[in-house]
Design a protein that fits this description.
Elements lengths: L1 H20 L15 H4 L8 E10 L4 H20 L9 H20 L4 E2 L2 E11 L2 E11 H34 L3 H16 L6 H17 L2 E4 L4 E4 L8 E6 L13 E9 L5 E9 L5 E4 L8 E9 L2 H4 L10 H12 L2 E9 L7 E8 L10 H12 L4 E3 L4 H4 L3 H11 L6 E15 L2 E8 L2 E4 L5 E4 L3 E7 L2 H23 L2
Parallel strand pairs: 6-12, 13-14, 13-15
Antiparallel strand pairs: 1-4, 2-3, 3-4, 5-7, 7-10, 8-9, 8-11, 11-12, 15-16, 15-17, 16-19, 17-18
Length: 497
């Protein structure tokens, strides 16, 4: 601390000599007063207090301006004591922290010569005039313990902010050298994210360097499908899981990567018949493996399960980057998106092999039978083309007016040994419109499929609607019922177990 006092003394003395050497008039105080001893010989620091002096001069006699300069000199002395220096590598956060500290001091000093804020105060001030020139000297004191705490706090912010880029980048280098490519890539992204929000001169360079490193690290991640082309019956579980392995070196026997986040996506069909995508997030196990049992599918056909590298959490930190940085982000995102594997699977229905009967009544807008079988025709057209063993049976209005249980029992007895399933229901006109020479008919109904041996309903279409137009009422009705049948037939083909 003695060295510090000597340094402060020499600094004050130098400023004093410069100011008074610059004056062509008398070298002594122009107002006849002697300079206080603390101007040329600042008080020595004590165990409790650190002293700082500041000097300011204005050749036009502006005392306020001279005091402002003296206050800035005090603040500058305190900043030098803190031992932190703003450079091109200093981040916005670090600059703001120091600026808030110094601006508070500066504002306090400007307000009054007896200014005090917390543990800092101005203890002495002296104004000297030498001709037109006015000189102001200030002596400030700072509680030593509090000042040292501020010093430690601000230094920590400077160190933390500088390390926000260099720290993760160094960790990334270490991880990649150990073939921990995913962990290394995440660290590089962290460093790039920190660089993207700073205003340092070389932020763009650091951002681009870390993004390139991240892309290169991810490029070393390899995904391998261990099986494919799995089969399962509709609404039943698969006999085996979809398996994938991730390595950090080429080849299925390469270095395994554990804890790698993977997103699994697959298609489902909602109750309304619309398709949707489901996803699940998993991580590789200690063997670098993913083993996924797809939930039972509620449709028939060929589809795919996709497993892809999931870095969404890390990439989210770069979502708000500026346009000039976007090219590197897009390139990295493309690399991540390329790391995926698709598995093909087939959902099979036994329904095609089961003898099925169709009995549906089409009703007009009064509820009476139309005497036609357009809905049945539409269903048969679709299911026959799909390979179903299906045929229509005579419509019995009395049976169709029974409850489901009685209807199923009656058909089961009547067609014992001929059919195992029954498609049944009624479809009626729910709306009829005439617009000029065009007719529009809407039909609706709920078609069900029953297992005749167990008596259970194994499929229901729900209350569906279908509209059609025609040049006359008959053609519009016929088209509406037929199209309704086709829609239900497709749904049955895709959903019947």
């Amino acid at each position: 601390m003695k060295n510090k006092s000597v340094l402060l003394y020499l600094t004050g003395l130098f400023l004093f000599l410069v100011m008074f050497t610059a004056c062509a008039s008398s070298p002594g105080p122009g107002n006849g007063e002697q300079l206080p001893s603390w101007v040329t010989l600042p008080p020595a620091d004590t165990s409790d207090t650190v002293y700082f002096i500041g000097a300011g001069s204005n050749p036009e006699g502006d005392t306020a301006m001279a005091r402002t300069l003296a206050g800035a000199d005090v603040v500058s002395s305190i900043t030098r004591f803190l031992g932190v220096k703003v450079s091109s590598d200093t981040t916005v956060t670090a600059k703001d922290t120091l600026d808030k500290f110094t601006s508070t001091l500066d504002q306090t000093i400007r307000e009054t010569s007896s200014a005090q804020i917390g543990d800092f105060r101005i203890v002495e001030s002296f104004t000297d005039k030498n001709g037109a020139t006015v000189n102001v000297y200030l002596l400030g004191s700072y509680n030593k313990k509090a000042l040292l705490e501020e010093q430690a706090r601000i230094k920590a912010v400077f160190a933390e902010q500088k390390a926000a880029i260099s720290g993760p980048e160094a960790e990334g280098d270490s991880l990649v050298s150990a073939s921990a490519f995913l962990a290394g890539a995440i660290k590089y992204i962290e460093a790039a994210s920190a660089a993207s929000v700073t205003d340092i001169d070389n932020a763009d360079i650091k951002y681009e360097r870390n993004m390139n490193k991240a892309r290169e690290a991810i490029g070393n991640i390899n995904l391998y499908a261990l099986n494919d082309n799995l089969n399962a019956f509709i609404k039943q579980t698969f006999d085996e899981s979809f398996k994938m392995k991730i390595t950090g070196t080429p080849g299925i026997d390469g270095i395994v990567l554990t804890g790698v986040p993977v997103r699994i996506t697959y298609k489902v069909v909602r109750a309304n018949g619309r398709k949707a995508i489901r996803s699940e997030s998993v991580i590789t196990d200690q063997n670098g493996m993913i083993s996924f049992f797809r939930p039972p599918a509620n449709f028939v056909g060929t589809e795919r399960v996709t497993m892809s590298l999931d870095l969404s959490a890390s990439l989210e930190t770069l979502e708000n980057i500026s346009d000039k940085l976007y090219a590197q982000f897009e390139s990295l995102e493309q690399m991540v998106n390329s790391k995926k594997i698709g598995f093909t699977y087939n959902i099979i229905s036994r329904a095609k092999e089961i003898a099925t009967a169709v009995m549906i009544i089409d009703q007009d807008n009064s509820g009476a039978s139309t005497g036609k079988t357009e809905t049945t025709s539409g269903i048969l057209e679709v299911l026959t083309s799909e390979g179903f063993s299906i045929r229509s049976i005579d419509v019995d209005s009395d049976i169709l007016n029974m409850g489901d249980e009685s209807l199923i029992n009656a058909i089961s007895k009547k067609y014992t040994g001929r059919f195992e399933r029954l498609v049944f229901g009624t479809v009626g006109i729910s709306d009829f419109q005439k617009d000029g020479d065009r007719f529009t008919v809407k039909v609706s109904g709920d078609i069900k499929v029953a297992d005749l041996s167990s008596g259970k309903i194994i499929y229901t279409s729900g209350n569906r609607f279908k509209s059609a137009m025609g040049s006359n009422a008959a053609s519009a009705m016929s088209a509406a019922f037929k199209q309704f049948g086709k829609v239900v037939g497709k749904s049955i083909a895709n959903n019947l177990p």
